[in-house]
Amino acid sequence: PLYTEATLLKDLQRVAKYVQDPRIKQLLIDRDQGKKGENGGIGTPATRAAMLAKLQERGFYAVEKKKLIPT
Question: What global pTM score does this model have?
């Protein structure tokens, strides 16, 4: 299934679940210890939306009917 902006932003909070290297996975999880709603994510709540906008601007994905389509 394709991401929407909302589902991708949510998954960026817990990207560690997709990491196969146990050392890197643990680093991500440890870094987010004590941060509410964060569990091995990348970026911060303040930077994630801006990251997505920049990726779209650079042509990494397009939006069709609220779905993010990789290009």
Answer: 0.82
